[in-house]
DNA sequence: AATGGGTCCAACCGCCACATG
DNA sequence: TCATGTGGCGGTTGGACCCAT
């Protein structure tokens, strides 16, 4: 098999994407949204297969992607989730907003695996290595020394929805010594992944539509179209490839992009109170994230992008949102088992801005308030 | 400066599941 | 029921980059 039928007929480009191709794909998706990937290349004017376009969008162009180093919290979360889920990278990624399965997989293979081995933990079973193993692995490690310091931070407790709708807390104390009970493991394995991004309060019932609408359709509250970078008349330019070397997300408030001459330096962008107020009163978990919040149209309106001078646009902007207030969680309806499927949409299909940073933080706030 | 080995990561491959006709 | 098309996932790989020699 290999290539889909859509790719076989024409001679299609392979390999790394050029900025021009990125621009075409990004412009197309932001204008028309994601419908049928197989038709995207043709409509966007790309010599790529749909699958390749999809991958490029999901792994690289999506504006909500977080970039740069994994934080300690993320690292702990990945390890914990891997213990439960194994190599189900997509499910793990669903718990880490702004991270892709590919990114997590790479991080695991290149870093976390070795880190666990160095700690005497079998990365596949998450149990202590036998003495023989340890000797074996020591050999390997000695020949390929770690470049990153060992994690010293506490492992992070995890929360999973139980079959009763209440939360199942997996404490850090059980982390490395056997981990989950079979029962709890079973509960988690049979439940859908809890994706915090599923709870955004999207306007216009996009979730019900089952079809991914273009960003331009989210812009109902935006002002003049010439101020709207995503609008139908937009013609922003990919002036540079995004920098892949952001500073640590744990602290970043300003993201610098590789092209320092462009206006693509986005200062801290804070969600203001209007966002909260404008959000749906009936939103459930969406309330949780309004502190780090996300009503898409409001987000666009309030984010205050810096479209300066040359109108250049770097799609991988990030912004920092207010830290989620813990009070918000107390009123959340997680405990009530109201995991609303009508808000369960495939976030990876939406060209959204990044909220990942504080959502990750938000996750941990949740843990603290259970 | 050249080079060889190791690392990282973006992209591809192969497979599976599901929808549709 | 079967064939076909498509989306999604996990494993693998090629090449750019880094660093030691």
Automatic annotation (TrEMBL):
Origin species: Glycine max (Soybean)
MF-aspect GO terms: transcription cis-regulatory region binding
Alphabetical list of PANTHER family matching this protein: MYB DOMAIN PROTEIN 55 (PTHR47997), TRANSCRIPTION FACTOR MYB86-LIKE (PTHR47997:SF34)
Alphabetized UniProt keyword annotations: DNA-binding, Nucleus, Repeat, Transcription, Transcription regulation
InterPro entries, per the entry: Homeodomain-like_sf, Myb_dom, Plant_SW-associated_TFs, SANT/Myb
Name of the coding gene: LOC100811140
CDD domains (UniProt xref): SANT
Domain of life of the native organism: Eukaryota
GO cellular component: nucleus
Pfam families: Myb_DNA-binding (PF00249)
SMART domains per the UniProt record, alphabetical: SANT
Example GO biological process: regulation of DNA-templated transcription
Domain Myb-like stretches: 9-61, 62-112
Domain HTH myb-type positions: 9-61, 62-116
Cell membrane is among the record's keywords: no
Protein name, entry field: MYB/HD-like transcription factor
Subcellular location: Nucleus
């Amino acid at each position: 098999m290999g290539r889909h039928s859509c790719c076989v007929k024409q001679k299609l480009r392979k390999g790394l994407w050029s900025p021009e191709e990125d621009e075409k794909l990004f412009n197309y998706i932001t204008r028309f949204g994601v419908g049928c990937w197989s038709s995207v290349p043709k409509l966007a004017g790309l010599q790529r297969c749909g699958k390749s376009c999809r991958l490029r969008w999901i792994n690289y162009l999506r504006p909500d992607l977080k970039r740069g180093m994994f934080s300690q919290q993320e690292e702990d979360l990945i390890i914990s989730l891997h213990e439960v889920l194994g190599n189900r990278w997509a499910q793990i990624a669903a718990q880490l907003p702004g991270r892709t399965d590919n990114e997590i997989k790479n991080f695991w293979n290149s870093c976390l695996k070795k880190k666990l081995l160095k700690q005497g933990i079998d990365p596949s079973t998450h149990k202590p290595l036998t003495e023989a193993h340890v000797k074996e692995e020591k050999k390997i490690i000695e020949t390929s020394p770690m470049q990153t310091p060992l994690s010293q931070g506490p492992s992070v407790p995890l929360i999973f929805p139980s079959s009763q709708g209440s939360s199942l807390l997996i404490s850090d104390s059980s982390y490395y010594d056997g981990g989950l009970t079979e029962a709890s493991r079973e509960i988690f394995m049979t439940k859908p992944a809890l994706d915090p991004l599923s709870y955004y309060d999207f306007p216009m019932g996009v979730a019900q539509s089952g079809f991914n609408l273009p960003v331009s359709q989210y812009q109902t509250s935006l002002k003049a179209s010439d101020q709207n970078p995503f609008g139908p008349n937009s013609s922003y330019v990919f002036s540079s490839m995004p920098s892949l070397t952001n500073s640590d997300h744990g602290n970043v408030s300003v993201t610098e992009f590789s092209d320092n001459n462009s206006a693509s330096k986005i200062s801290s962008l804070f969600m203001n109170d209007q966002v909260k107020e404008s959000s749906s009163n009936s939103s459930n978990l969406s309330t949780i994230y309004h502190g780090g919040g996300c009503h898409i149209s409001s987000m666009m309106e309030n984010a205050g992008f810096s479209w300066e001078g040359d109108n250049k646009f770097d799609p991988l902007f990030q912004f920092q949102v207010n830290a989620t207030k813990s009070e918000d969680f107390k009123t959340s309806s997680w405990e009530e088992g109201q995991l609303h499927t009508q808000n369960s949409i495939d976030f990876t299909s939406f060209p959204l801005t990044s909220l990942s940073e504080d959502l990750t933080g938000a996750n941990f706030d949740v843990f603290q308030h259970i």
